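User: Sequence in, structure out. Go.
Assistant: Echoing your sequence, followed by the structure tokens.
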Amino acid sequence: MTSGQRLRVGIAGYGAIGRSLAAALHAGIPGLALAAIASRDEARVRASLPAGAAPAIVPVADLPRHAELIVECAPAAVLVSIAVPALEAGRVLVVLSCGALLDNEHLIGLAKEHGGRILVPTGALLGLDAVLAAAEGKIASVQMTSRKPPAGLLGAPYLVEHAIDIASITEPMRVFEGSAREAARGFPANVNVAVALSLAGIGPDRTRIAIWADPTIKRNTHLIEVESDAARFSMRIEGVPSENPRTGKITAQSVVALLRKLRAPLAVGT
């Protein structure tokens, strides 16, 4: 691909994030073009596309034929079905369900074998550049505390398995405390931010996370505390939920920012 050619982008999954991303690409991101969307329901996708957009609507396995870069915006359970054909074709894969990478580390080897790449966007996390920089030295500890309105946690496997009822709570309740790896398995739709943090820093087994169901808040709130030989820092973010209460609006914007950076003549940040 020459510098003058536009990078074709495919979207796997067309929920809140996929629709937001399609709108941004159609509105125009320099050097990129919306080429395809993977969905089993073409009529539903066509009905909600931005006016004038005409990407190919194809099965997941066909996305690599239409796009050099594929963005996964789907439930964690289907990551492998999206990732394998993309990476075997040597494509760049942007993974939002990064928690699922912890149980599918073979995908990293697949990318290496076929010349593909896996990119994990910052998502609803701030300060990831600082964590990456600190990891070049020695990080002693990383602690993350997430607070979400109960609606954003309902149905999480960990809550179901342990019969934790949060539907009618009136006060904040800590529902989990453990490693990022354990959190990813128990809350696959909720803690991709913690996994991204762990991958940038000291890994999913040493990164600690506490999760609270908090009926007193309306925003997804994350507090990150890092102790390293280069710096001690803490970061707090309160994200506005998207139409999907499990996901913040800033997550989609983070993907758009990543895509802009890929072809930008000036890129800011690590």
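User: And one key feature?
Assistant: DSSP finds ten helices and eleven strands in the chain.
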